[in-house]
Amino acid sequence: MGHVKERLAGFKAPRHVGFVDEIPRLANGKLDYSSLNQTAASMFGGDDVAEAAH
Q: CA of 24: how far to CAs of 9, 30, 42, 53, in Å?
């Protein structure tokens, strides 16, 4: 993360970085943002992560 923070403005640097085995997708192949937000909230502990995307 230090590499990113050195090169980007503070508001552009991600607060959290997480890795998942598979990106959730809808039946039509598009990203399932709702499921992804829930996964992020459970990984990083809080509803603020899910709300930040809205």
A: 30, 9, 15, 16
- pTM for the model stands at 0.60
pLDDT tops 70 at residue 9: yes
Q: How far apart are CA 19 and CA 11, in angstroms?
A: 21
Q: Do residues 17 and 23 lie in contact, with contact meaning Cβ atoms separated by under 8 Å?
A: no
Share of the chain above pLDDT 90, in %: 43
Residue in the block written with tokens 């809080």: 46
Question: Facing residues of 25 across strands?
Answer: 31
d(Cα 4, Cα 54) in Å, to the nearest integer?
A: 24
